[in-house]
Fold this protein.
Amino acid sequence: MATGTPFSPLMTPARPPFWRNVKVLRAVIQIIALLGVGVVVYVLFFNVTNNLRARGIRTDFEFLDQPFGVRIAGSDLSPGAPVRAALINGVKNTLALTVVGLPLLTILGVLVGVGRLSANWLVSKVSTVYVEILRNLPPLLLIVFAFQAVILRLPPARSPVTPFGWFVISNLETHVPGFRAGEGYATFISIVGLALAVGALVWWWRTRVQQEAGAPHHRWAWSLGLVAVVATIAYLVIGRPLTITLPVLTGRVVDGGFRGLGAFFAVMGALVLYTSSHVAEIVRGSIQAVPKGQTEAASALALSGFQRLRFVVLPQALRTALPPVINQYLNYVKNTSLAIVVGFAEVTLIAFQAIGNGQPAPQVIITLMAAYLVFSLVISLIINVLNRRLRMVTR
């Protein structure tokens, strides 16, 4: 008869030795992988720095204080300005392309995406042709075409056109109505900024009221109304800290308004058209992913076609569309580097000009990479925060 301790299902099984523990093995593998990456990075950095020193090339970033040596089109910087100032100017130009282009491509992409599903035959076909043509063309080709076939065909800078007296347009620059800051401008902007912050709190408060009491939120009316009232009172009390200025052509000199180089509009227009065609396809697919029962329920409530789209379909489609749209935003920002082909002074062109003037290429490229990395991370952070807010919660 066998002797020993009888087995009981309630007994705790013996722990395996640490070298067979799954958690320990995962941690060890990650540490080994991290050490391997560190060794590779160290070897590459060691080789690069040694090769640079052997050729007499500096490895620090003091070149940022050296003269840039080239005049930048559309900028008041002199050739003697430091490389740092030139790169900052390029970053500002890239930022301008981003700030103006992203809202435009979003609006256009949504309209075309909805148009592809329209019951109107003409709207549907025009939207389909728009998408199928633009998304299958290289963005570089679109930029060159916009610059060569549109911008350069405008009147020359010596004889620009002035439609309605509000614009001054030539193949070099385009001037549009703008604003001029006066006395008390900083105070006015501070008050408006504070009003926007309070408006955000009011927006949150009205949302809570709807969630807890079921009353209509009227967030737009409350928030924008507050900001508009505060801004109007501040504008009148301070004494017109901002005035609208129209561009005035005197000889060959234009005073007032905002100006933009023709290359800027070529790059922005081409990239907006190209990227919006991809956004349109994302919007179309996201709308089709909304369950059909949602539309049928909205129709049973006697909602109009626009109301179904505005209150039922698009809010649900937005949850699906937002993650891939983030990728298109990032692609737009990275594609702005193609502006180099038309000579627009965004950050990539400035970096290449700095290298051509004898500045150390590795440090300049690292600076350029860091600039695009910051752009991408900021956009991803903002949109991901919005994506988290819109994420559907299941219980």
Notes: The chain has a mean pLDDT of 84. The longest helix spans residues 83-116. Strands lie at 168-169, 173-176, 178-181, 242-245, 248-250, 253-255, 258-261.
